[in-house]
Amino acid sequence: MGQHEKYRNMVTNRFYVIAAAIFFAGPSYGMCRQALALGLDVSSSVDAGEYAAQIDGLAQALDDVQVRRALIGTNAGHVALLVYEWGGRSQQTIIQPWLEITDNALVDQVINTLRNHNRSFGGQPTALGHAMGFGAVQLAQNPDCDRQTLDISGDGLNNDGFRPKQAILNNDFTDITVNGLVIGGADADALTSYYQQEVIYGFGSFVEIANGYNDYARAMKRKLLRELTVIAVSQLELE
């Protein structure tokens, strides 16, 4: 086993230990520890089947027992969630407005909203920078939460409007961590490198990789647990 594989296994094991700690802890409903905005790619590179896999994959990930517990929270507080989809520079639509997730019924509400949503538009270019700028504006209007996270899912490079790096320069990302979920195919390595250089931002930011749209649910679950549980545990350690 190589050093890279050993490191990956160590990180994975630590990640699941943290997730288990969140899962078995008791809920707390008072404080919002994290505002999480999820941006879904609906540009022209995403066909109808891929779009359905993306929406259903997010719904499946949110329905996971461990993800539910991470959203509802522990003594470190709960999560506020917003979901939107993006395409060209002026095509962004909110699917799920800000909602503070304090119980399982509210998780069910988000899942139901996703599964009953119809795609807002199609045939649009890939305006990653504008998608990030839109997410930053939404986070500025979020509930009173301790931390702010923006997640951008995508399967291609920016080809419309300003670059992702320009979005960071032209919007207030001071307190925002940007993570990415790359939906890869044959170009997965190049797209991952692009996201690492252009998209992710802030302390602890990372790129998760889905091996195509059929792998989206697994990758989204792993990404959510990674970002939500680590933040929760780090706050618990400070209390």
Global structural class: alpha/beta
Enter the CATH topology name. Rossmann fold
Provide the helix percentage. 40-55%
- Tally of contiguous helical segments: 8
Describe this structure in words.
By secondary structure, the protein is of the alpha/beta class. The chain has a single domain (3-238), classed as von Willebrand factor, type A domain (Rossmann fold, 3-Layer(aba) Sandwich), CATH 3.40.50. Helix content is 47%, strand content 21%. The protein has helices at residues 3-24, 48-63, 65-72, 104-115, 128-140, 164-170, 188-199, 216-238, and strands at residues 32-41, 78-86, 92-101, 145-154, 176-183, 207-210. It has a 6-stranded mixed beta sheet, sandwiched between helices. α7 (188-199) links the parallel β5 and β6 (207-210). The chain is globular, with a radius of gyration of 17 Å. Residues 1-28 and 231-239 have low confidence and may be disordered.
Question: Which key features would you list for this structure?
Answer:
alpha/beta, Rossmann fold, 239 residues
